[in-house]
Design brief:
The complex is a heterodimer. Chain A is an alpha/beta fold. Chain A has 12 helices and 13 strands. Classes of the chains: A alpha/beta, B alpha+beta. Chains A and B meet through strand 8 and helix 7 of A and helix 2 of B. Chain B: Keywords: Kinase, Membrane, Phosphoprotein, Transferase, Transmembrane, Transmembrane helix.
């Protein structure tokens, strides 16, 4: 299973590196949306990503950041963005209007997990031990930072606002780590990929936290665009820029900073698990 | 052991008191200026802290107000957490956002002040005061300042920002200033005290010189003039000049006293010569009569024997008077020891004065043999006392003389008269140290006191119902040496 995934990834990367389709001359610039789904606090990374995309597309690229997923999704659905890096949960909620452009590969797979973390000093080994504790969620439109934990509680006929004491949203996985590390929240729901990457780069930020549960594997937060624009030159150029990122020095710097292996076109079925959880908690597509 | 009187500052020398007063004054001035400096420093620090606190609260309120309005825990925490790093100068130790019900929405240190809790009562009280006053409330004991700012949207309260700043460095700075002030002012006080000590000692040096000269004069020395150029300023010049004038006057009085004593001696000699002439003259009439009788009736053996007996007795009396005079006036001090006969001779010398005033002389000479007292000086002491007493006695009065041995060696001479008593001025001569002779009489007693003192003895007055009773104690030379050795 793992070996076939890697072959598939190499094939895709090779194909993308052959030629990068460019948007038509009428396109003055490209607006690309970013959510706090990944390490958006790294300004050097943002500069490198913008530089790579501009080099690949041949037009100026404007990286649009918003505080919440909801704002970015709204802009994407309103056609104000050419594409955006969003979470799997909003993708499945709006799958009828959104199409996949690329999906990141982490440790060779387009998958990631949600982590349930607690204050390191807390004697907790399961979600049940977090009952009555304060809890930091990432974003109400985040799969790993909200949906997974809500789905776990729903399976127990529980609701977050009743199970936890004063749950709140920190609007960013990194913020969840800060909240739990500082003691503002005794537990939190966070993107496993973010936790691992921060633990590697800034161990002090995760030192005060402890992973007490890991979720099933889910489709990695994808890069999407409106379906009606999927075959447009900008969307195609963006898809090629991401899937061909590993073939260019500027792209490799971005991947290295993100600790990703590359991007693949991905398939909607990667997000079936998320769709099932959303349906289970009463938030179907 | 230090006597208690020495602890009384009023008894301390000026050379100590004046520097101490200078040091105290400097310390007082330093204390006043130090208080002013510290007060100004404290005001400046508090104003600076208040400005910093105001800027801190302004910035924080802007960032936190939307979060407080939405009761957004994360946003409130995020703003507090970022502010802590940005306001390093204020050294915030604690910051929290409270909801209108007083519960904590978020704090910068959630582990000590968790969301949903309430602030400790003391802190809440200080925060209430700080919010009402619009300025920090300082707690010097805890080295903290509590800041607070109420958040409101129009008339709708949204909550309150409460922060605590570490004012330890401010207090350390104040303590450092106090230490510097103490050190500087203490050093100044010491320097001024030392300078005051040296200056006062220099100023008092001429006065101290006069004091030492006075002490020497009081111990029996002669007043010695001082160098007037040692004086500083007109006051010292006047003091030293006055001392020198007093020394010169004293020397002149001494010289005059010596002259007076000599004249008194001469007068005494004159009186005694007159007495001796009288004593010689008295029998002369009888002797001449006896000679005439012998010339006329020398053939008659009975008359001749009677005339010769008269001549023998008369000449014997003259011989005795002359001998007594010779013994009294020809001898020199240190010639011989005092014997009972020496006092008996005096009886002849004063017999004329006694008879002239019609006095009765009671004579008790109980001195056994010789005593180791200078014969010449001893006799002169007794003679002066006798002549004084005779002069003081009323006509037909009784004059008493008694001589005996002093216990421990020496002689005691006691002379009593029936006079009006010893005047106070005369009595003061008995106990006075060396001094000039009294004016207006009393030279004989003054001389006797000086002579008795030169023999190591004294003259005292024994209280009596009538007249004056004086006792001269003249210790033997060996007893004087033993006393000197004992000292």
């Amino acid at each position: 299973m793992k070996a076939s995934g890697l072959v598939h990834r190499r094939t895709l990367l090779a194909a993308a590196s052959v030629a990068l389709p460019r948007p038509g001359r009428a396109v003055a610039s490209v607006r690309f949306g970013l959510t706090p789904v990944f390490l958006d606090s790294d300004l050097v990374l943002l500069r490198d990503l913008g530089g790579h995309l501009e080099a690949a597309l041949g037009v100026p690229v404007q990286l649009v950041k918003r505080r919440t997923y909801q704002e970015v999704i709204a802009m994407l659905l309103a056609g104000q963005l050419d594409a955006a890096w969003i979470c799997g949960f909003p993708y499945v909620r709006h799958a009828d209007r959104l199409s996949l452009l690329a999906v990141p590969l982490h440790h060779g797979r387009p998958l990631y997990q949600s982590y349930l973390i607690s204050d390191a000093s807390l004697e907790a080994s399961s979600i049940e031990d977090l009952r009555g504790r304060s809890h930091a969620f990432s974003d109400p439109d985040s799969n790993s930072g909200f949906l997974v934990t809500r789905w776990l509680l729903a399976a127990r006929q529980e609701r977050p606002e009743e199970f936890f004491n004063r749950p709140f949203f920190a609007y960013g996985h990194r913020n969840v780590l800060r909240a739990v590390g500082a003691g503002l929240a005794e537990s939190g729901s966070v993107d496993g990929y973010v936790w691992e990457t921060v633990a590697d780069r800034e161990p002090a930020l995760t030192a005060g936290t402890r992973v007490i549960a890991r979720s099933e594997w889910h489709g990695f937060p994808p890069i999407c665009c409106l379906t009606e624009r999927r075959e447009g030159p900008t969307a195609r150029a963006l898809a090629a820029a991401f899937t061909g990122m590993a073939g260019h020095p500027s792209g490799r710097r971005v991947l290295e900073a993100l600790q990703l292996d590359g991007f693949v076109p991905g398939a909607p079925s990667l997000y079936d698990g998320i769709a099932r959880m959303a349906a289970a908690v009463g938030m179907p597509r | 052991m230090i006597p208690l009187r020495a602890l009384d500052p009023r008894r301390w020398p000026l050379a100590v008191r004046v520097p101490l007063i200078v040091a105290a004054l400097v310390a007082g001035v330093a204390l006043a200026t130090g208080q002013a400096v510290l007060s100004r420093l404290a005001r400046d620090q508090e104003r600076h802290l208040s400005e910093l606190a105001s800027a801190f609260l302004d910035g924080l309120a802007t960032a936190v107000q939307p979060a407080a309005a939405r009761a957004d825990i994360w946003e409130a925490f995020d703003a507090l957490d970022r502010a802590r790093a940005r306001y390093g100068a204020l050294r915030p130790m604690l910051a929290a956002v409270l909801l209108p019900d007083g519960t904590v929405l978020a704090s910068a240190d959630p582990r000590s002040i968790p969301t949903g809790s309430r602030l400790p009562a003391a802190l809440a009280t200080q925060a209430e005061a700080a919010a009402a006053a619009g300025m920090p409330v300082l707690d010097a004991e805890a080295a903290t300042a509590v800041l607070a700012r109420d958040l409101a949207e129009g008339a709708v309260p949204l909550g309150r920002i409460v922060a605590m700043a570490d004012i330890g460095p401010l207090l350390v700075e104040r303590r450092a200033v106090v230490g510097t002030l103490l050190l500087a002012n203490g050093s100044l006080a010491l320097v001024f005290a030392a300078a005051g000590f040296l200056l006062v000692r220099r100023l008092l040096a001429p006065a101290d010189l006069v004091r030492r000269r006075l002490a020497e004069a009081a111990r029996g020395g002669r007043p010695v003039p001082v160098d007037e150029t040692l004086g500083i300023g007109p006051e010292h010049a006047a003091l030293l000049a006055a001392w020198n004038r007093a020394a010169v006057a004293s020397a002149e009085r001494e010289a005059m006293a010596a002259r007076l004593a000599k004249e008194e001696r001469h007068a005494q000699v004159g009186r005694l010569a007159a007495a001796m002439a009288h004593e010689v003259n008295n029998p002369l009439g009888g002797l001449i009569t006896a000679v005439d009788t012998l010339s006329d009736h020398g053939d008659d053996p009975e008359v001749r024997a009677e005339a010769l007996g008269l001549l023998r007795r008369g000449l014997g009396d003259i011989r005795n008077v002359v001998r007594a005079g010779l013994a009294t006036w020809r001898g020199a001090p240190g010639d011989a020891a005092l014997a009972a006969q020496d006092f008996d001779d005096l009886r002849l010398l004063v017999r004329h004065e006694v008879a002239r005033r019609g006095l009765t002389l009671e004579w008790r000479n109980e001195l056994p043999g010789e005593v180791a007292v200078d014969r010449t000086l001893g006799r002169q002491v007794a003679l002066n006392l006798l002549l004084n007493a005779a002069a003081a006695s009323p006509p037909q009065g009784t004059l008493r003389f008694r001589a005996c041995e002093l216990q421990g060696g020496g002689a005691v001479v006691e002379v009593a008269d029936a006079g009006p008593g010893l005047p106070a001025a005369m009595e003061s001569l008995l106990g006075a140290a060396e001094g000039p002779p009294p004016e207006g009489g009393g030279l004989g007693l003054w001389t006797a006191v000086r002579l008795a003192r030169s023999l190591g003895g004294r003259i005292i007055r024994i209280p009596s119902d009538t007249g004056t009773r004086l006792v001269a104690e003249l210790p033997a030379a060996s007893a004087r040496r033993e006393a000197a050795h004992a000292i």
